[in-house]
Amino acid sequence: YDDRDGKIWMDGKLVDWRAANVHILSHALHYASSVFEGERCYDGKIFLSRKHSERLLNSGNLLDMPIPYSVDEIEAAKQAVVAANGLTNAYVRAVAWRGAGEDMGVSSARNPVRMAVAAWEWGDYYGDAKMKGAKLDVAKWKRPSPETIPTAAKAAGLYMICTMSKHVAEAKGCSDAMFLDYRGYVAEATGANIFFVRDGEVHTPLTDAILNGLTRQTVIGMLKDRQVKVHERHIEPSELESMEQCWLTGSAAEVTPVGQIGDWNFEVGALTKDIAQGYEKVVRS
Ligand code: PMP
């Protein structure tokens, strides 16, 4: 992704794509002092853009690395990047990190917090799984306790075990991995929240140890509009056997049906299809 034409917004101005570099002694590279957002732009408009910008600032605050830009400035940066690259349907990646500076130890208080925004075209996150239902592996790693790491932040450090688990899943021919949390409850995928359907009602994990995704919140709203009962609760893995349908939600993943998790199978049923298609309308409305 580094060798492309285009513009990236970096620390307040647009720079050439290939020139958007950081120093090897950036604190973030050594100690994971990095937070980010993943968003999608539909027909020229970034869906829930302000909410993503607010979450980015909140993630920065949770990691004690306040980002030196306002929501309005971040909004303007994202718009500038989408426009400068001539994009209308795109993925937008904002990232903020502790740069190189006075300190090279664990403490980074004297190093600047930097920020960049890039955008590019990105099709379906799970490729053709979007149509036929994704196959998920069950990760051997567990989502950590909120007493271990700030789980409400969209922070790079939370993705280390995601990458490791996704590599294992892909080697098994799966699209992604599903995590249990530190207590053993069903948690989320490596970049998406998870929903189940049983007897016409929807069940989704509580967000006491995972990211409360913006897509998750949108989909819960859509289900309530449809008078479908939504149970946000702790879900035991043993319950998966009785679940009939399953889907994932995420800004990149959108609404992706799940056909299989480990040995459990799910149908791509009517409600899954309705929500997946409905979401495509909501993001463009
Ligand atoms: N969980 C994780 C671990 C994620 O990376 C994402 C993607 N940001 C989500 C859930 C879904 O969040 P959202 O719907 O806000 O994109």
From TrEMBL:
Any one biological process term the GO annotation gives: L-leucine biosynthetic process
Keyword Oxidoreductase: no
Known cofactor(s): pyridoxal 5'-phosphate
Keyword flag Phosphoprotein: no
EC top class, as a word: transferase
Annotated pathway: Amino-acid biosynthesis; L-valine biosynthesis; L-valine from pyruvate: step 4/4; Amino-acid biosynthesis; L-leucine biosynthesis; L-leucine from 3-methyl-2-oxobutanoate: step 4/4; Amino-acid biosynthesis; L-isoleucine biosynthesis; L-isoleucine from 2-oxobutanoate: step 4/4
Reactions this protein catalyses: L-leucine + 2-oxoglutarate = 4-methyl-2-oxopentanoate + L-glutamate; L-valine + 2-oxoglutarate = 3-methyl-2-oxobutanoate + L-glutamate; L-isoleucine + 2-oxoglutarate = (S)-3-methyl-2-oxopentanoate + L-glutamate
UniProt-listed Enzyme Commission number(s): 2.6.1.42
Keyword terms of this UniProt record: Amino-acid biosynthesis, Aminotransferase, Branched-chain amino acid biosynthesis, Pyridoxal phosphate, Transferase
Parts forming coiled coils: none
An MF annotation (GO) of this entry: L-isoleucine-2-oxoglutarate transaminase activity
Pfam families xref list: Aminotran_4 (PF01063)
Family label: Belongs to the class-IV pyridoxal-phosphate-dependent aminotransferase family.
NCBIfam families tied to this protein: ilvE_I, PRK06606.1, PRK07544.1
Stated role: Acts on leucine, isoleucine and valine.
Name used for this protein in its record: Branched-chain-amino-acid aminotransferase
Organism: Aquicoccus porphyridii
The encoding gene: ilvE
